[in-house]
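for the writeup, i need someone to sanity check this before i put it in the appendix. the sequnce is what the collaborator sent (i think, or maybe the updated version? ugh). structure was predicted straight from it, no edits. if anything looks off just tell me and ill rerun, i have time this weekend
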Amino acid sequence: MRRLALRLCTLNKELLIPGRGLTQGFQNPEKQRVFHMHEACSPIHVNHGVCVRDKLREIVGVSTNWRDHMKAMEERKLLQSFLAKSQEGLPPRRMKDSYIEVLLPLGSQPELREKYLTVQNTIRFGRILEDLDSLGVLICYMHTRVHAAKMSPLSIVTALVDKIDMCKTSLSPEQDIKFSGHVSWVGKTSMEVKMQMFQLHGNEFCPVLDATFVMVARDSENKGPAFVNPLIPESPEEEELFRQGELNKGRRVTFSATSLLKMAPSAEERTTIHEMFLNTLDPKTVSFRSRVLPPNAVWMENSKLKSLEVCHPQERNIFNRIFGGFLMRKAYELGWATACNFGGSRPFVVAVDDIMFQKPVEVGSLLFLSSQVCFTKDNYIQVRVHSEVASLESKEHMTTNVFHFTFMSEKEVPLVFPRTYGESMLYLDGKRHFNSMSVPVKLRKDFSEAP
């Protein structure tokens, strides 16, 4: 069971109090790692300043020039000798060793606002997803840095977006934003990263969201797993975070084992589907084939939207695959449009969870996105976005991601009804994701959200 959103915000805010937890040893501003996000340019190219993506390119040793890719990959082969043969051969790290703060100066640098701005004068959440993805990778590089090597021998990639819980709904494009985060748990080759986002209100940064990502380390050529440094908690708060990381891993294993792709629905879920089926039978007939919608309801098949993206080099990451944050942004924007079209009013995101990166997307691929509403309740809309790719040479489609977004509409939305068994499984899966959400956020009248 997931912790309450507000409790998450409270706990993480405590960890940032001077003299406690992660901030111990970082009281001197000159020693604290503070970067800039600088999103005025594309994710792979930044004009100026010390920013997250500049730092990532420096760590990995890649060029901004697309044509230099093969040369850079050849140079990275030489880093294999720096890889540890076992985790025991790596020095342990503390949570504060990977702690980073990143400033997005929307208030103090107005020229950065346009890329984050919506027509409703709010912030594009899709851009925030891109920033969180980049920050999560950089945090892991801080945890695994090898002082003897100029470049990191590891290739760190996003494996899973475990959850993103909104603590606050009102996001202003005219106030500075601060991100912070650190490694909170490690396995042999994987790392859990906790990140928070704050926005300046008056003279104080107030919590906006909490995010949990899972990253994996691979060798310098990104061909196989690599060991990461162990993590040592130093305080009761850090021990609690580490314990939660273990619980999160167990929850993910259980959730995967009970997937509807592997196991039949529970007795309660079967009853739910059968009752929905009975509610759609035409009372004028005695046929199972005659189906009619109840009042204020929509067939699930009529809630779909689709899009196609050509994956250009501009959207590549530091390993010359398509940037995971770009995939999340495109999926979110299609999901938002689906919720908006279904609910008839402007929705805002409440939670994001269980985004599994199953397969990397190559530059030049055709990216097919399919979105549909799979569960509704009151004014909540659960949207599932399926992502698959096909190369320009092949017509074979392969699934790369499945995204789950929970939106809240300004008014009550219709019920969604499955017509087929496959849609019934999508409905139950959507209901499971909705029920795993933290305590619902109350809609604020002064807020509207756009992608």
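Residues 236-257 form the longest helix (22 residues). Confidence is low (pLDDT under 50) at residues 1-31, 39-49, 443-448.
thx in advance!!
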